[in-house]
Design a protein that fits this description.
- The structure holds two protein chains of two kinds.
- In chain A, 44% of the residues lie in helices and 13% in strands.
- By secondary structure, chain A is of the alpha/beta class.
- Chain A folds into two domains: 171 residues, D-Maltodextrin-Binding Protein, domain 2, CATH 3.40.190.10; 191 residues, 3-Layer(aba) Sandwich (D-Maltodextrin-Binding Protein, domain 2).
- In chain A, the strands form three sheets. A five-stranded mixed beta sheet of chain A has the order 2-1-3-10-4. A four-stranded mixed beta sheet of chain A has the order 6-7-5-8.
- In chain A, α11 crosses α12, α11 crosses α13 and α19 packs antiparallel against α20.
- The longest helix of chain A is centred in the first third of the chain and has 17 residues.
- In chain A, 53% of the residues are buried.
- Chain B is built from 15 helices and two strands.
- The longest helix of chain B has 32 residues.
- The chains are: A alpha/beta, B mainly alpha.
- Chains A and B meet through α1, α2, α3, α6 and α14 of A and α2, α7, α13, α14 and α15 of B.
């Protein structure tokens, strides 16, 4: 039986960035276009909710009614207890928060609010919409790769990381044991493994891209193996050409792996694809750790390895591990408490407070207590610990308009017709130039 | 003398059109009427004309939604140029909207009419059928999306199971760009039929019984009675249905949005517009250009409709 699709734990902002709208979308679209012109006048009354009250701190959260919302509340309470500063938690539904971020930041943003590392954070920093929190750093136990991900274009830090969920290749330990498979570390070994699986009647790669974003994970992995992390960042920021030989090589590698992917993937959600792994019909799946949602009873059988090396000169040291964390508003009412709270949120104490809800997160801090972690969470932490570079996932590392209106349709076109690479990359590059104008 | 002097005055009075008392408004009446005209007019201007004109203006601009009006960069027709030449989903979207219009006209609308005629015959359980057929119209979007996901899912869906398709033979109803538009159109028809049926049921109830009796006395059979007498009498309903079909197909959005947000074979104007304007991807100028094109397309239909209506009134 199909489970109801859940978007509660979105692996990427664009996955939830689009609302399910009502039927008067046309009018609303036009209204939206009209209404934004009225925005600048609102900024005048921005600057937070209170009037210089130093004993309270406003905290904007994008989780309501979930275990993550409980975690946030628990952390806020723990901070109040430790510091005596009241935290006014202002929770907004995930989609609404995402859609209204520009209004929110230009209007009355909370002192501290939830956000992600990546391009969008750097963009906000450049616009002066979020506050410089360099003096909160260094954070105890938070590795350099995370600091790099929290840094704006001007070299200052604008973000405090709290938790992450890496992307990797997932498999069932029992399936590997039964068939005598070993974890591949090079592309050739991966191809051998896939061929072996096919002979054993398994679909080598589970694959579903109905929602458009899961395929970005595969693209990122291959790109970072073929061209490296630095190229990924430059490509995402619009500095490298999509129609150059590097990106073509990515698509060519992917095309050669495509016969090992589940067919008809454009009609399949990631949940349905994950269930084929769960039912032992497929052998591998490139996805984020949120995959465990589809393994309620046998998560312990789930294991992961990093995407194998393709070019020995590049290695396999970069991974996608979207980091969730917090930013400070550009003009907080209570700057001292905001900084104090941010430091707290990245600490082992905050992780411990969150764990009281029964579900720990994978903390960005090495000092956090990992004894409550599941085996998969421990493995994830290990994977990230070994990574030299952490990318934030395609749609967090580039302009969201480019990711959602160009990359999603293009990757889907590629999946439908993997042979027409030349036209595809030309089209992406030409659309990119119309979007990356400023 | 007095007689002759009076005459022109009388004539003048006679020439003047007779004035009725009711036309003279007191100050209070004037205030009420002014308010009744001005308030809705204000709303129309604020909620319809202002956004529409703002969209037209913004369609010549490049603006991310950040910063004030001074940050808007005016780029002339570049958005339109990009839209038509450098945005692959655009032309498929126009085609799909037109196909949507044709399909709604040709399939669910006649079907809704047929069902209305059948249910109007007071057959047993007519209320049950009416409710069952109308139900899809009132179901929430999330539920509709979920129901059709259960039907169309490639791996676990009802349809592939009923057809007995296994393994590679399974049809990818939502994922195959050749098929998915038709799959969604069927789902749309499922909702639209009930809607049209209800409108026609109401219309049929309003048709005077004596007309049918007269027709049968004249020897007309059932089909003749319906097409020559009943259908023409329902003209107001026909016009409403016509307008609804046009509006529904131009703003077609929700089912496509729940399936895959308007990509991969399901490109449709309203979905593309939403992708570009709402949410984090704020290509406001670009999205506005799309809105303007939709506005132009709808104006064509509105103009035709208004002309027909005014002609009728004059007759």
């Amino acid at each position: 039986m199909t489970r109801q699709p859940k978007y509660s734990r979105s692996p990427s902002p664009s996955a939830v960035g689009m609302p399910v709208l009502g039927r008067r979308s046309v009018l609303r679209g036009m209204l939206a276009a009209g209404a934004v012109t009225a925005l600048p006048s609102l900024t005048a009354c921005g600057g937070g909710s209170g009037g210089g009250d130093t004993t309270t701190l406003s905290f904007g959260s994008n989780e309501t009614g979930s275990v993550f919302a409980e975690q946030r509340q628990a952390m806020a309470d723990a901070f109040t207890e430790a510091s005596g500063t009241d935290v006014a938690l202002n929770a907004v539904d995930h989609n609404t928060f995402q859609e209204n971020i520009s209004t929110y930041l230009q209007g009355n943003a909370d002192d501290v609010f939830t956000w992600f590392a990546g391009y969008r954070m750097r963009f906000f920093a450049e616009q002066g919409l979020i506050g410089d929190v360099s003096d909160v750093w260094p954070l105890e136990g938070v590795p350099d790769s995370f600091k790099q991900a929290s840094t704006g274009n001007d070299g200052k830090q604008y973000f405090v990381p709290q938790q992450y969920y890496p992307w990797a290749v997932f498999y069932r330990k029992s399936v590997f044991e039964e068939n005598g498979y070993t974890v591949p570390t090079t592309l050739d070994q991966l191809v051998d493994l896939c061929e072996g699986m096919r002979d054993d009647g398994l679909v080598p790669f589970a694959f579903g891209d109905k929602d458009g974003w899961p395929a970005m994970g595969t693209f990122d992995m291959i790109n970072m193996r073929v061209n490296g992390f630095d190229f990924h960042i430059r490509l995402m920021s619009g500095e490298e050409a999509w129609n150059g030989p590097e990106v073509k090589a990515v698509f060519e590698t992917w095309r050669d792996l495509m016969p090992f992917h589940q067919t008809d993937s454009l009609g399949r959600t990631w949940q349905e694809a994950a269930q084929t792994l769960q039912r032992r019909e497929s052998g591998l799946y490139v996805l984020g750790t949120f995959l465990n949602e589809q393994f309620p009873d046998d998560e312990d059988d789930l294991d992961l390895f990093t995407f194998p090396e393709i070019d020995p000169a590049i290695g396999a040291t970069a991974i996608d591990a979207p980091i969730d964390g917090f930013c400070m508003s550009a003009d907080p009412d209570n700057p001292e408490a905001a900084r104090e709270f941010l430091a707290f949120l990245a600490s082992a104490e905050a992780a411990a407070a969150a764990e009281t809800t029964g579900l720990p997160f994978i903390s960005a801090s090495d000092t956090a207590d990992t004894s409550g972690y599941s085996a998969l969470q421990k493995k994830s932490a290990e994977l990230v610990g070994q990574a030299e570079h952490i990318a934030q996932f395609l749609d967090r590392d580039t302009r969201p308009d480019f990711a959602s209106t160009v990359i999603i349709p293009s990757l889907q076109a590629f999946i439908s017709d993997p042979d027409d690479i030349d036209d595809l990359v030309e089209s992406i590059e030409s659309q990119k130039q119309s979007i990356f104008v400023d | 003398m007095t007689v002759t002097q009076d005459k022109p005055a009388e004539r003048r009075a006679a020439r003047r059109p007779p004035r009725r008392r009711g036309h003279r408004l007191t100050g209070r009446d004037r205030a009420v009427v002014t308010a009744m005209v001005a308030v809705p007019a204000l709303f129309v201007v604020l909620l319809v004309w202002f956004p529409a004109i703002a969209s037209v203006l913004l369609s010549f601009a490049s603006w991310s939604g950040f910063g004030g009006i001074e940050d808007i960069e005016w780029i002339g027709l570049e958005n339109y140029e990009n839209l038509t030449t450098n945005y692959p989903p655009f032309w498929p979207a126009i085609r799909h909207n037109l196909l949507w219009l044709a399909f709604l006209f040709l399939v669910p609308t006649p079907l809704g009419l047929l069902l209305a005629v059948l249910l109007d015959k007071e057959i047993r359980g007519t209320r049950f059928y009416q409710t069952a057929l109308y139900l899809p119209v009132v179901l929430s979007l999330a539920l509709v999306g979920f129901i059709w996901q259960l039907v169309y899912s490639r791996d676990q869906g009802l349809l592939n199971a009923v057809l007995g398709l296994e393994g590679e033979a399974r049809i990818d109803w939502y994922g195959d760009p050749e098929i998915n538009l038709w799959a969604v159109l069927v789902a749309t028809a499922w909702r639209h039929t009930g809607y049209v049926m209800l409108l026609y049921l109401a219309g049929l109830k309003g048709v005077d019984r004596s007309l049918r009796e007269a027709a049968s006395v004249d020897g007309a059979n059932q089909a003749q009675t319906f097409f020559r007498v009943v259908f023409p009498v329902m003209r107001p309903i026909n016009v409403i249905v016509l307008v609804i079909v046009v509006i529904e197909s131009l703003r077609a959005f929700d089912l496509v949005w729940v399936v895959n947000r308007g990509t991969n074979g399901l490109e449709i104007m309203a979905a593309l517009l939403t992708q570009n304007v709402v949410g984090e991807a704020s290509r406001i100028g670009f999205g506005s250009a799309m809105a303007v094109i939709m506005l132009l397309i709808s104006s064509v239909f509105i103009t035709v409709y208004l002309r027909v209506m005014f002609k009728e009134e004059k007759r």
